[in-house]
Amino acid sequence: MTKPPDRGPAPASASPARQPTLRQLRGFKEVARHASFSRAAEALALSQPALSSAIRELETLMGVTLFDRGTHHVRLTPAGQAARAQIEWLLNSYTQGTDDLRRLLDTQAATVRIGCIPSTMHLLAPAVAQWRLRHPEIVLILSDHLNDELMAALANGELDIGLGLDFGLAPGLAAAFVAEDDLVAVLSDSHRLSRRRQITWQDLKREPLAVLSRGSTYEMIVSALRQQGADLAATDTLNYTDTLYSLVRAGLRVGLISRLYTQGQRPDGLAIVPLQHPRLTRRISLMARAPEQQARAAVQRCYTELASLLRARAAAAA
Predict the structure, then answer these.
(1) Which of 15, 51, 222, 311 is most solvent-facing, going by the fewest CB within 10 Å?
(2) pLDDT tens digit sequence for 241-288
(3) How far apart are CA 175 and CA 284, in angstroms?
């Protein structure tokens, strides 16, 4: 009979090898320590049959006998002696790792990450400073974002709380209304329209304009200008407020911007005039995970108290 060709060892199974459980490893450690199944079972608050079963499962998994069991003795076999130090190291590493994880989560529990759109920072910063005086044990991390980025960061958990524009919330988010923000014209104080109590969009139809380039406010302004038949090609689209204010102060442009962007500016050389017909407003809201989805008490407390502080500041400034 012809001998079949040697095809080598059978391929390894695609499924991962079974690993010892913590219950088994802890059982081994206590039996080795007490040299007794009954005393080890008592230390582990297990029944002796359950402990014996765990040790047999471990021996089967490892493919060796770990204990020499006699009528009046339990001793480690040479294999058990060899395994003891490694098993104790594994258990100590696990304990250290869980302690490190607990410390990390304790630190996270005492940290609240807050973001806002840039125009609202002058509202947020004083309220945050006031809140920190009441809760010095909580670490607050502040950042600024465009509104779309802010909403995405709230939805994916990068931020705990956000102050921005409420144009519709992602599932699982809640919002507390803080203030209404309207669009205004910013002019040089020597401009012919600077003494008006209000300006219509039609008044600006032939004026050289400047707007900030990104975000929802830009889209609102462009839509209004189109409706008035304004020449958008003559409108400067800028990245930074400092550039816009410099052009306005020099009398080169009329700036179109949200009122919140004007409240941190020096008023010298500027006139800020409401825009009407139509009056365009933005809803400023404090946003966070809905209470039923918020597991961290520090975040929920900060959100509730900041909403109250912000409403009070917005009302005082109105």
Answers:
(1) 15
(2) 899 999 999 999 999 998 888 876 777 889 999 999 989 998 999 999
(3) 9
